[in-house]
What does this fold into?
Amino acid sequence: MKELKKKLLELDGVVGVGKGSIVIYVEDEKYVDAVPKYINGKPVKVMVVGKVSFCSRRSRVRPVFGGISIGSTLIDDAGTLGVVDSNGYIVTCTHVVGFKNLDGDFIDKRVEVIQPGRYDGGNDNDVIGVVTKINKWKWNDVDSVCYADVALCKCEVSSYRLKVLGDNSLYDIDGWCDVSVGDVVRKSGRTSGVTFHRVVDTHAMLKVHLGNKFAVFDDVVVVFPPILPGDSGSIFDKDGKVAGVGFAGSKKIGAFIKSKYAVSMGADFGEKDESVGGGKALLAVGSLYLLAGGLYAVAQRPVKA
Amino acid sequence: MDIVSAKRILEKRLFRVEGVVGVGANVDRGFIVVYVEDLSVCSDMPKEFEGYEVKCVEVGRVEM
It folds into this structure.
C-alpha cells in the first residue's frame, strides 16, 4: 500500500490517499479523470478537497484534520480537533465544544463548532460543523463519577478522515486499542503539537477542576509528561491506534479518556487491535521526546485554560 | 482482594480528603497510587492497604 500511495501522490493534482476502501484526494475537479477508476480490482473513490498547505495549528485550515484548533461559537476558548472519524464526525472534548459559558454549564440546544476556536481568532464565518453528542457530568459531587469527556460533532466541511497533523505531514489513524503501564503514546495537540508520553497509570480516578468547580473522572489513563491547556481533545495513539482523548493535566501529569468510551458514544476509529505491547520504533523515538517534552512542558505552561 | 477492588475501596475513603486529587493503581507492579496536590498531604496517607503498597505522588491541581 505504501508503494501504491507513493505512485498515486506523484500524479498531478493528487494531494492525499486514504485507507480502507481506496480514497484519493485531489486538488480540483480537473484532476478527477486522471485518477485510475480501479486499483488492483478495487473501485477508487475520488474526493475533491482543494489544495493542502501546512500552517499553524491555530490558524484556519481547510480541509480539516486532527491536531488543530477548534471551539464552539458560544465561548472564547480553544481546544483541539482530535480527529475526523471514518463517518465524518469530529472527535474532541465536551469541555471544548459542549459548554455554553466558561462556568461549565452544558449546552442545551444546537451549537455550531468553528475552526479555529474563538481564542485563536475564529468567528462565525469559520463554522465547520455542529455538536451532535456530548457526555455530561455532575459538578462538585464526589459520589458522582464520570468516565468520559468526549464530544462528537458532524463535520460539514471537507476533511481528511482519520488523519492527524504531525510535525511536517499528516499521519494515519487506523483502529483503536487499550494501553498498559509503560507504553509510549503519541498525541497531536493545538498547543504543544506532537509529543510523546509514557503511560504511568491505566486505572486512575481523578478530581478534575474547571475554575472553582470539579468533576470526578474514573478509569482514566495518566501519562507523563503533561499535556497543556488547549491540547484537550487531542487523540493519543499507540502505533496509529487510538488509545484515547486527552482532556486534563496538571503541572506534572496529563490524562486521557480511554478510547472505548469514545467508541461507545459512536466514534468510529476502525477495528480494535487486541494485540498487546508497545511498538519498539515508537518507543525509541518517544524516549527522546519524553525528555524534551518534559522540559518543554515545565517551561511553557500558558495561563489560558 | 485484587488490586483494582482494593483501589476502589481506598478511593472512596480518600476522595473526601482535602488535597487528594486522584487514586490509581499499577496493576502490573502491584501498588496503589494516591495523587495529591501537595506533598504535605502524604503524611496522612496509609503506607499499605489490603496488602498493597500505597505510594503518594505529588501532581498538583488537575485541570481541564
In short: Chain B has a mean pLDDT of 94. Chain B touches chain A at residues 4, 7, 11, 15-16, 20-29, 33, 35, 58-64 (CB under 8 Å). DSSP finds one helix and four strands in chain B. The longest strand of chain B covers residues 20-26.
